[in-house]
Please model this.
Amino acid sequence: MALAIQRTKPAELQSSPNEPVAIEANQLNIYYGKFRAVRDLNLSVPARKITAMIGPSGCGKSTVLRSFNRMNDLVAIAHTEGEVLFQKHNIYAPEVDPVEVRRRIGMVFQKPNPFPKSIYDNIAWGARINGFKGNMDELVERSLRQAALWDDVKEKLHQSALGLSGGQQQRLCIARTIATQPEIILMDEPCSALDPIATLKIEDLMRELASNYTIIIVTHSMQQAARVSDFTAFFMVDEQRAGHLVEYGPTKGLFTNPKDQRTEDYITGRFG
Model:
């Protein structure tokens, strides 16, 4: 995606962390038909850190997440205004291939969704369609090891992935994402369908992966955001029901000394 795209002057980034930037939104507005779901988003996400998005239901968290790899393009009535810059290129420029964007910016969904194939083929499938020419056995093992799943499945690689537990299926989906060698991993409430033990395993895995990948997670659990993330973005809806960013910064500071009263009210359970 080495494209010579003219970059417009960005708006001032709200609470931009002093870190190398993995992806950033500049004056991003997202619509479903005439309804503006997200308004005027300026957000700079640091590289190789975990950034959590929190806020009440309907505030646009998942819509923002999907905008970072153009998943919203799959919704017929959705359209986007503004920029999302990845490696200084606007991923919404007409010449940019959204399939290539999704290879470089992978996604793990709320509900584990392994393919009805073997564990091995779940990992190999995405690599094959992306033209991987190396040693597939090594790639499968490496991806499963990175997802902390290898020891669980190394003796049953050619069995159906659907026979795994929910937590194992979610780690398999993470391994499948890793196999396409992305630079950013998006996670949309990846633990909401899991029990507490599986949730802690996924959280531990996220911390390990953050040394090599930028991770952006949407979560309804403030405890999870506080446990795993380095930075947190808090969203709300305005009087027109459009989601907007209220506060963004290092997680510890946002949870212990929020700058906006609305953030404090949400964190302390006064609304939401």
